[in-house]
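Pair request: fold both.
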Amino acid sequence: MKTMRLFPLELRRLLQSRLTWLILLLTVLSPVLGLVLYKPATSTTMLSMYLANPAIAGGVAGAILFGLLTIFELDRARRSRVDILTDAVVSPLTTALTRLLALLTAAVLTAGLTMLVWLPISAGLIGAVFTGANYVLAYLLFMGLALPLGILAAAAAYQFTRRADLSIVLFIAFCALSLTVWAADWQLCWLNPCVWALSDDFSNLRVFRSVAWMRFTWLLALAGVWTISYLCIRQYGKGVFGSLARSVRRLYRPVIALALLACSGAAYAAQPFIDHSNPDLTVMSFYEIPYAEGVTFVRRTAQVFPDTDAGTVTGRASYQFRNTSGQEQSISFGINPGYAISNVKANGADIPFTVSDYQEYNEALLEVTIPAEEEVELTMEYSGFPQESMPTMQGGKELSDEYLCLENSALSPRVMNVMPGDAGYPAEIEITLPENMLAIPFGSSEAEVVAEHEDGTRTWRYEHNGAGGILYAGDYIREDIEAGGMTIEFYYGRKHQAVMEAAKAVDAVKEVVDYCTGHYGSLSFGTGETLKLIQSRVAGGGYATTGASLLDEADFTAANLGNTEKGGGAGEVMIHELVHQWWGLGNMFDTSDPTSPWSAEGLTVYTTYRIVKELYGEDYAREHYVDQWQKAVDDYYLNFYVRNPEYLEMLPEQVQLAISNSLSQVRQYNEMPLKIYKAEQLVGGEEAMDQILHGLFNRELDPMYPYLTYQEFLDACHLTEEDLNLG
C-alpha cells in the first residue's frame, strides 16, 4: 500500500527532471538510427527498411538510455549523501520498488509517444503496403518491450553492486553480449531481436510471435534476476549478504524469484519455432537409410487442415505399399520436428512407431514397422506448429490467412526408404483453406476447389507425383499471360497489386519471356505449355522445378524497383528480375569468389539493356545503361580504397565489409555488363553474341559443377580476360 501512495509522487518527481526529458527525447528520436546507421534487417522490403530497422534501432538505443537513467536515479540519494536519511524515513525496499514502477511507467509513456511521432513518418516512407497492425506490433515488440528489459537489467546491476560506475560497466557489457556474441542466437539477443526481414505483401505473424516469445522469456529472466537483486538491497546498515539473509525471511520473495527464473528456463526450452537440426549441412545421414527390402510405393493421400489463426497444422495421411518380402519391414519417414504423430495403423490395426530426437534438414525420423502382408495401407495423424531450421531467417514457415508455405514433411510425412512403384510416387493432396486463399502446388499440378464449407473455408484437391512436394497458398492475384509459346500463370500478393501495376508487371513478363525464349531458348523447368511464376513471401532467393518458378517478393518492392543499377525505371527493374529466370535460375553461377565481377547480374543487366534497346530505342538504352555503366566504372577506379587497398585493411571489419560490398556491387552491376558489351563488339555484333549466349544457356551441364563460369564465357567468345580489359 505504501508503494502505491509513494508511486504518484515518485513519478511526478521523475517527470520533472530535465535528464528524464532528455532521455525521453533521445529515445523518441532514436529510430532515425535505423534509417541511416544500424540496419539489422537486411532485406529490401519496405517494412524491413522503414519499420523493422527503425523500431529495432529505437529499442537498442532506448533500452541503453533508460538503463543509464535507471542507474542515475537509483544512485541519486547515495550520490547526494542523503541515503541514510531517506532510508530512515522509507524502507530501501519500498523505495526501490517505487522507483522501478516509475521508471517503467516513463518507459511506457516514451514508447507510446514514439509510436505517435513515427506513425506518419513510417506511413509515408512505406507507402501502399503500410498497415496499422504491422506498425503497432513492430514498435511494441521490437522497441517497446526493450525499454523495460534495459531498466530491469540496469536496476539489478545497481542493486547487486550499489556502485554507479560498476553498474554501468556491467550493464553495457550485458548489452554488448546481445549485439555481438549472442547476435546470431534469436533466443539470447535480448536487446536486438533477430529480424532479417518483414514481408510487405503477406503476414509477419511468425516473426512477431518469435520475438514476443524471446521478449517474454527475457522479461521473466530479468524480473527474476531483479527480484534476487531486490533481496540484496542494503538495509539496517548491513552488507549485501546480511541484507540478503534478512530479506529472505519473508519466504515468498525468494520463491517468486525462483519461480520467475524457472518459468524463463521453461520458456527457453519449450520454444516452438526453431528445430534442433544438425548445423553441419554436409551430414546427410537420412539419405543413407537403406531401402526396405521388397517394399514398393503404390499411392499416398493426405488431408491437411491448417489453422491459420493459431499457425498450426493438423492432417491425416494414408500410404499404400506393396510388401513382397514376406517379412515385417521398417519404413522411415521424415516429419517436421514440430509435429506430433498419433493413431498409426496398418490395415486398421495399431502398430508401434518411434520418433528420433536427432533432426536433420528440418526433419525428424519417424520409423514404423509394417506387417508381413502383401498389401499394406498405413494411416497416421499428425499435428503441431511447423518448426524452421534457420533462426536468423524466420518467416519461411509463415502460416496465416494471407500466406502459407508447406514444404515436404511439413505438408505430410515424407517417405524416405521405399522404392517407387510403376507410377512413381503418386499422391492426392487435399487442403482446407480460408476462402480468400488460392492453393498453388509448386510444379505442374493444378489445384481445384472440391468443396465449400459453411465456416467460409474451401477444400482444394490436386494430384502430385513425388515423395514430398511443396504447396503455396495465399491471398494471390492470378494473371494469365500468353508469351514464348506458352501460358504464364503469374501469381502475386494482393497487397502488391498497386506496385505491380505501376511497374507494368504483366507487360514485363510478356516482353521478357518472348525475348529470352526467342534469343536463348525455353526455360528448362517449363512444361512447354504452362509455367507458374509465383511471388513468395520474402525468403532470400528463389528456385524452380518443372512447371513452376519462385519470385522472391524482395525483388519487387518499391525500393528495389527504383534501383537504377538494375534499370532506368520500375518497369525495367521488373524486366531485370524476370531475366534472372534465364541467368540465375536457368543457369547457375558460383558466387564463392566475392572479389570476382562474374555473377548472374552481369548477363542479367546486359540482357535487360538489350530488351530495353528493342523496346525504347538505341539512344535511350545507351543513355540509361551503357553510359551509366561507364560512369560507375570510371568512378570505381578512382575510388581511394581501390587505389590504396592497404588502407581498407586498416578499417574496422564491419566498415571493411560495407565498403567491399559496395565496390563488389559496382563490379557486378556495371563492370561486368560493360565487359560483355565490349565482347559483343569484338565477336561481331549482337547477333553473334546472341548465338554465343544461346549456346551457353543450352550447354550440357556437368552435374558435379553445373555453374556457368567466366572462363566458359571467354572460351565461347574466343577471347581472353585481357581482351576485355576496360583500362
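--- second member of the pair ---
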Amino acid sequence: MSENRLVAEILQTELNKRRFITEKSITVDELFQPKALKEWTKRLLGNDGMSGLAGRIEGASHERLEHTVATYLLGIAIKEGLNLKFDSLPRIFTKGSYGDAFYFFWSVICLCHDLGYQYENGDYDLEKMGTSDGRCELFDIQYDMLQLQKENLAEFGIASDKKEGQWILKSLELAKNYSRIRRDKKEYIGRKAQIDHGIAGALVLYDALIKEYKRAEAENQLAEEIRHKASNLNAGKKISSGELSSNVSNVRFAACSLLIACTVARHNMWNAEKKDEAKYHAFDLDLLCPGSPDSIISTEQSLDQMLFLLDFMDTIDLVKGIYTREAEAGKPKEVLDKRLEFLLHRITICFMKEKSDQYRWESALKYREFTISMKGGEVKEKFDEEVFDKYVERISGLTKWLDTKAPRFHKGEAGKEPSSVTLYYPNFPVKQQKWIGDITDCEITALCLYEGSGGNGKAGLFYQYHNAYQTFNLLMMDDLEGEKVRVCVEGQNPYGLYIEEWKRTLEVMTDIFTAQCKYMDSQCGERKEEMRVYRVDRKVNFDMMEKHGGTFAFTSTSKTGYLKNIAKGKKNLILLEIILKEGIPFVDYGGLFGEMYVYSDEQEVLLPPFLKLRTFPMEVSLNVDERKVATTEQLGSMKKYVVELGTFEIRREELDESAVIVRLEENKKIAAEVLEQIRKTRKIPEEKEKVEIYCRWKKDFQSLVRYCLYNIGIVYGLKEK
C-alpha cells in the first residue's frame, strides 16, 4: 500500500518537477497569490511571452487560475501515481511518431480550459455569438474556430474522412449547436441564457494558438534572413522553453491546436435530462441525449482521452471543490483561511500500490483506484466533516457523463477513523510493441530522446527537451572546443539538467548503444555489401574525429544524402560521405520504427562512438546538388570528404569506478552551473577554477562512458583490441 500524502505535499512535488520548464521556483503558498500564480502559468506555457495567450491568462480571475493550476498538477500526480498510459494520443511531431505528447496536450488544455469563464458570467450581447463577425468582435479574435468547414481541414494536414477529422467535425457541430441552446431565452436544467464558458474558452484559445503558430513561422523566417546577412550564425536566434513555445514550430502544431480547442469546447457540455430531451433534439443535440454513446465520455476512444481526463479532474479537483467556489462567492477571509488550511494540511491522497509493487496482470484490470481521505489520528472538527461531506456529494455524479465506476464513500467515526472517498480511473491494457532484435521499450525511449521526438511519454523535463542530443554530444567533446562553436557561435541549447542527472544521461547512452548492438545482431552481423551514409558536419567535429582516429560521440547520418535543414546555422561546414564495410553497432531509425518513424524524410542511421577511422579522409570535389546544401556564406569554406569507418574499437581500460562516480557526484552542481552560464550568456565564464572543474567533469564522464560501452560491446561479441 502506498502512503497517504498531504495535498500540500503532492502539489509542491509537482511544482518542483516543473521548475526546469519555468526556470522559477514557486511554493504551494504562492499558488494562492495572484501575481506569482499568473507569472508561473505564463512561464510554464512559454517563456518567450506568448503575446496573445499571455494576455488572456493575465485577464483571467485569480480563483479560476487557482483551480486550473491545481487541476493540472493533481492530474499529473494521478497519471504518474496510477501509471496511466496515453500512448494513443495525437502526435505533435508527425502523424506517425512513436511515444506520446501528454505533457504538451495536458498543459495547454488544462491550464487554458477556463479562459472563457468571464464571458459566461458577464453581461454580453448574446446575439453576437450567432455570426463569425460577431464572435470575432465579442472575443477580440481573428481566427474563428466555429467557421471552419470540412474543406478547411486539409489546410491543417487533417483528413476529413479519417477518425481525427471526423472527431473534429463532430466536435465543431456540437459546439455550434450547444452554443445556440445555451443562448436560448427559455431556461433548461435550471440555467439562464448565457455564453458557455467552454466554447468561449475554446474560441480565444484557438485564436491565440494559431496566432502563436504564425508568429513563430514569421520569426523563424526573419531569424533565417538575419543569419544569412550576419557573420554571427547565432544572430536572430531565440531560446524558447515552455510546454507550448517549445512545440510551436512542429509541423502538426496547427492541427493539434484545433484538437486542443475542440476538447476545451466540449468539456462543459451538459447531457440532457429527461425533461429537456425534446429541446435538445430540436437543437440537433441528439449526441448529448440519453442512449447516445457520445453522451458518456470513454477512455476507449483515443481522441476522447484528454477530454475524459479534463472532465474527471475538473470534477474531483479538491481546490475548486473546497476553496475556489467559496472564494468566488466572496466569503470572508477567516472562512477562506480555514478552508485552505483544511485543504492543504488535513486531506491526503493515497494511490493503492507503488509502481514497484505492481504485477503485469494488473494492467488488464479495468480500473485503477486512489483514495482521498481526511487526515486521521486526531479528533475531527464538525467543520471538517461538513466540508468533506459536501465535497463528496458534488463529485458523486461522475458516472452521469463519464464511463467510470461510481466513487465509494466511507463515512468515518469521529475521533477514530477518517472519512474517505475512493475514485476509479478506467484503465485498458496497452498493446505491447515487439521491436527488432528484442530491443526494449527503455532502449526505444533512449533512441526517441536522442532523435528529438521526446522520451516516449516519460515524465519530467529530462525526457521532454527535443534537443537533448545537443547536450549528450557536447559532453563527449574535448575541453571547450564544442562549447565555443556549438553554443557561443551557433546558438545550441545544452542544459545543465543532463549533468545534474548524469546517471540518467549515462543510462540513456548505454541504452542507445545496447539497442545498436541488438540491431547489428538482427541484421545478421556482417553485411555482405558496403553501406554508404551521409553527414552534414562542422569542421570542429571533423578535426576532432581525425584527432581521435574515429567517432567520439553518437553520430547521426542519413541514407538519403545531405539534408539542407541540418546545414542551417553550422559554422565551417563539412560534408562527409561515410563508407561502412564491416558489421558495426548501429540503428536505422526507418528500419526500426517503420511507419511510426517521426522524421521519415531524414532516414537517419545512428552510429556509436569509438568507430575506428580505417583510412585517412579523402577530400573530393562538390557536385552541383551538394553545393545547394550550403548558404552563400557557408559555401566559401565548405569541403567534402570520403571517410571509411571500421569496427567498434574496444580496449580494456583500468578504471577506479567508485572514485569516478564520487567525483562526478561531487562536481556535478558546479559543472551544471558552468554549462547553464555558457548557454545563457553565449560566452565562456571568466571564473577559471569553475571552468576547469567543468572540463575535468567532462573527462571523468567520458571515461565512464567508454568504460561502460566497452563492457557492453564485449557481451555482444565485439572483439577486444
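Observation on the second member. The longest helix spans residues 197-229.
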